[in-house]
Amino acid sequence: MGTEAGGADLQTLARVIGRVRGNVERVIEGKPDVVNASLVVLLAEGHLLIEDVPGVGKTQLSKALARSIDCSVRRIQFTPDLLPSDVTGVSVFNQNTREFEFRPGGVFANIVVGDEINRASPKTQSALLECMEERQVTVDNTTYQLEQPFMVIATQNPIEMEGTYALPEAQRDRFMARVSVGYPVEAAEIAMLASHTGANPLDDLEPVTDASELRKLIGIVGQVYVSEAVQRYAVAIAAATRRSDELTLGASPRATLHLVRAAKAVAAMDDRDYVLPDDVTRLARPVLAHRLLPSVEAAMTGRSTTTILDGIVAAVPVPDRSAR
Predict the structure, then answer these.
(1) pLDDT tens across 106-154, in order?
(2) What is the pTM of this model?
(3) Sequence spans of domains, the chain
(4) For residue 92, with 0-12 CB atoms within 10 Å meaning exposed, 13-18 middle and 19 or more buried, which class applies?
(5) Residues 192, 196, 202, 203: what is their CA dihedral angle, to the nearest 10 degrees?
(6) CA 67 to CA 317: how far, in whole Å?
(7) pLDDT (tens digit, 9 = 90+) per residue, 86-113?
(8) What fold, for 224-318?
(9) What is the rounded distance in angstroms from the CA atom of residue 152 to the CA atom of residue 171?
């Protein structure tokens, strides 16, 4: 394979991702944008945060994505009494061998579904920091590598909900994108009543790809070309958030990296071996908004980070479409 993604590679990617999308949409109907965002994060080797009110299908989405791939999947139900060792693992003394042996925690899987992540204490949430960034876990001075691919799909309720803790900034920054499922349109909700009341469509889902094929697809995405003009555009957007008077916390360099990696995945899914400025623009909301903190003045006037971000992105000059 050359230094850039070839046409045959992109066709393979489109075929496999089409199968995964079809699988997920059997469970989550009428939400193509949300399904698309989750596939982008999967291909870009990121982690996905699904935030919304209870009962709109956050866990269904994460489970459908996990079941579509023939790989190891673990679910962690985050509760106030969950301990960091439940997440990472713990060394236990074996009476027979008279030695300590490591018992892996919930993160030792290709796909980790963290349900209601903001119901656990910040101390427990922080147990995910190392594994999400470095794909490894350190327990009792011993480091254990996590198998590739590795993806955390976390669901959370809005922080106004009873019994929730706000995610630490360092935790939010490790999620490549945040999506909101939202309520279904009327037709989709009626269709859901017909398809979900007799049986759970999750029960019928069969894997349509596996971990090794997914690693190949991630490699194809990695070879998508990003011009210097597009790189400068991504950096300009991130820099503008740091200068904004309406934000007390702008986008980190990691956020810029995530923005470009996600744009490469979008380009590959659109059958292109190069990134357009439009790819970066349309990903700004899901990739950047959850990392930003509004200033006190902006929060008091009711301006959300999404609204502030939209204004910032609109003010940054877009490179010429031919910049590739």
Answers:
(1) 999 998 888 888 888 888 888 888 899 999 998 888 899 998 889 998 8
(2) 0.87
(3) 224-318
(4) exposed
(5) -160
(6) 42
(7) 999 988 888 888 888 888 999 999 988 8
(8) Helicase, Ruva Protein; domain 3 (1.10.8)
(9) 12
